[in-house]
Structure formats: structure tokens, C-alpha cells
Amino acid sequence: MVRINRNPQILVIFLLILVLLISGCGKKVCKTNADCSDDNKCTNDYCVKGKECKHTAIKDCHCGNGVCEKIENQCTCPEDCTKCLGKEGKYLKKVCVDDECVTDAANVTEKSFTDIITERDLKLQATYTYDYPFNLQKSVFNIKIRIQQLGTYALRPRINKVEVFKKRDRLGTDVTIFGSKRINKVLWSEDTEINEDIVLDNVEMNGSETSHIANVKIYYDYITGTKQEETPITYSKEFKEPIVFVAPTTKQKCPENCDDSNDCTKDYCSQKTGYFCMHDAVTSSCCGNNVCDPDEDKCTCPEDCGSCSGRFGSYMEFVCLEQECHAILRNDVVVTPRPIIDNRDISTDFSIEARIEYNEPFDVTQDNFKITIAMTKLNPATSDIVFERAHVLDTNNVLLGEKQDINSPLSQIGESFDVEIPVSFVMRDVEEEHMPKIKLIYSYTRPPRGTSPGELLTNQFYEKAIGKLVFVNPT
């Protein structure tokens, strides 16, 4: 049997100890102020007499008080208002910009593909590059165009305009143009490249994220054919994959620098430009403004006027001599004399031998066709043979050159005369191929026929085809 001690003194001592233990519960025991942190930015924490922590509110302190007040947001006080994190839709994310929680394009990658544009003697290569997703506030549609192949009769391809658009019907008769740009630049050679950014500021949006099948239309022209006619071309390309467009809520602003390193452009950006950089060509004469100004040429400004270099055709090349562009025969070209001997019977009345000499290639600035006509047979009754004039004719009897007033008579076998025929036609290029022929006009009195007396025959002609011949025009 357990006996309980009922001594009053012992019971009082026990109750005092119990009260002290209960009063000490809930109070943090500390030695320094550092022991009293409550992780609240809006309280002062300190240790009282090395035993007890005290916490007093800081006047006018907001962030950290556990309440998202009007003067706070997710970026200025994530402790009270939650953090500005996470995705908004499929292609947007939340970010802090200038202490504001906004959306911006997420996981942006670059897409690019190359397209070949073929038109008879001209083949162009176009490369299209754009952001995926396409941020309407900062992304641009980039197009690069260069010559892949330039035929003999294709010159000076010029890119005039590029459009990015969406077809609203199957036939493409109704379209929405997302953006366009006038370019007006010439591709002078395979080394020249057009590199342009196009702002797409008219995209139809359904919410903050939309996709469209885009199309590109390129307007260009080039000089083509032997007649050197300007041929305008319009080329369209539909993209296989849709472009995803996003409209973030970030506040737009201009880039820090819009300098395109071109002294011939005025570079600027403002609210009026949609906060995109613009580069307008200066109106004054400037090498690099895409205009061959009166004081510029291929040697002083190849950027605007084309380069004075490279081969042309089979024999010629362009070089700069004393700051002027000249077409000259290449150093490896060997000029070859070409003789043709043609024996011809002029019915039974007389016969001639024609010796025709010329150079290949034929330099129109100094060469002539040299012709020697000699009498080889003669009917004694034939008389008054006179060669009056000589022509060099092209296909369809186009006049290339002539010699008037020759008036050279032939009256006996072995007699001959010489004539040189210069060419005088205007060449469109510094090298051209033609099919010339020699034509001599003569008259004579033929012998009597039976009871008919002798007859004077006028405007008789002798012709001899030369065949293909290349003419060159050094400058």
C-alpha cells in the first residue's frame, strides 16, 4: 500500500516550481539579437537581458508584412504577392521588367530555310529567317537574296519589293499583307547579297497567341534577251509550316543602338516606327545609297554602280584604269587571222576569186574586213565590169558596215583590186556574236544573146557567208 505524504510545505514548493515552468513556455530563450530573427522584414528583433526575444513593428514597412498591398506587386514584393513566374499559354512566360510582371516570348528559337527562284537565264537563292515564336514587339522577318546563276543574256537583276502575307481564300485573290518593304537594290554579281529586315505590323491576332500559314512575294526584274528588254517578274512562295505569332505585354522600347554602319542611311527609332529601327537612304549623293549618282561609276562606287571586274563572254574583261572602267581583251586571248578563199563563176560571162580576211575576235574599234577580188576567167565579149560598193550584213540583212563608191573596174584576167570594209553598227555589249556575210554590188555589160545585143546589167551582187563571228568593243 502506497502512503501519500500530506506535508503542506512540500506541496507549496511543488506548486511554485510548476508555475515557473509554465510561465517559461513559449518564450524564446536568447543570448544575442541574432537568436531572435522571425524572418519578417517589417519587425525589429532583439534579445532582452540575454533571456527573452522581443519583436516590434517597423513604421511604414510594407513588403514582408504578409499582406500584398496596393503599392506592391509580384516583382516589387514577391514575399507578400507571390512570385512572377510560370508560363502564360504555350509560348509566353511571366517575367519582371521595370518592376512590372509582364509576359514575354518563351523558348525563342530561330527558323530558317532556303528557296531557289528559277526564271530562264536567271537563278536566285532566297533565305528566309524568323523567330519561333515570332514576337510582334521585337521580331523581324529577314530575307537574304543572292545570285546563284546568271546566264549570258540575263543582266542586272533588281529586287524591287518583298511582301509577307496570308491568303484569305484558296485562290489567293484576297490576302492580308502582314508587312512589306520596298528594296530597289541591284544584284550586280554573285558576290552581292541583299539582306533586309521586314517588320510585320499587320498580323491578325486571336488572343495573345496565333498561328498563320505565311506567304512571301518577291517583285523583281532583270535585263534579258539579245534586245536587252526589261522583264518584270513576280514570285510567290507559301511556307509549309505555320508561323506562331505572340503578342506579349512587355512595354515596348527602342533598341539602344540603331546604327547599321552605313553612312548613307538615316537611322532612327521612335513610337511612330513601332519601336523598330528604320534606315532611310539619304537623298544626297552618297556611295552606298543604292543609287548610281552622276558623280559615281563602277570604279569609284561599285556598291551602287556595280563592280568593274570579272570576265565578260569568251574574250573580254572589265578593269579599272585611272579610276575609269574599261573593257579590254583578256591577256590570254590570241587574236587569230581568218582567211576565206572563194572561187565563183558569174554565169558564163566571167569568174572571180574572192579572198576575205578578218580577225577573230573582231575588234570593231580597229579591225576591217579585207577583201581582194581577182578576175580568173573572162568572156571576151563581156565588158564594163565595175564593183561599186561593199556591205557587211547580219542575219535578216541588218547592216553592220559598208564601203561606198568603190568603183573598181576589172577588164582582164589577173586584174584585181582591194577593199577594206569597216563596221559601224552599235553594239549593246562589249562582246556579241553575229552571223555576218559579205555582199558586193557590181554591174557589167553581158555579151549578145542570139539576135539580142549586149545588155548592161546593174545591181548585181556577190555574197559570201562568214559564219559565226564574235565582235568585241574595247573601251
Description of the structure:
This protein has 475 residues and is mostly beta strands. Among the domains are: 109-251, Immunoglobulin-like (Sandwich), CATH 2.60.40; 336-472, Immunoglobulin-like (Sandwich). It contains three helices and 33 strands. It has helices at 8-24, 78-81, 302-305; strands at residues 43-48, 52-57, 87-88, 92-97, 100-105, 109-119, 122-132, 134-135, 141-150, 154-167, 175-186, 193-198, 209-212, 215-224, 229-238, 243-246, 265-268, 278-281, 311-312, 316-321, 324-329, 336-346, 350-360, 362-363, 368-378, 383-393, 399-403, 408-410, 416-422, 431-434, 437-446, 455-465, 469-472. The strands form ten sheets. Strands 26, 27, 28, 31 and 32 form a five-stranded antiparallel β-sheet that branches. The protein has a four-stranded antiparallel β-sheet with strand order 6-7-9-12, with no helix packed on it. It is rod-shaped and about 185 Å long. The model has no long low-confidence stretch (mean pLDDT 89).
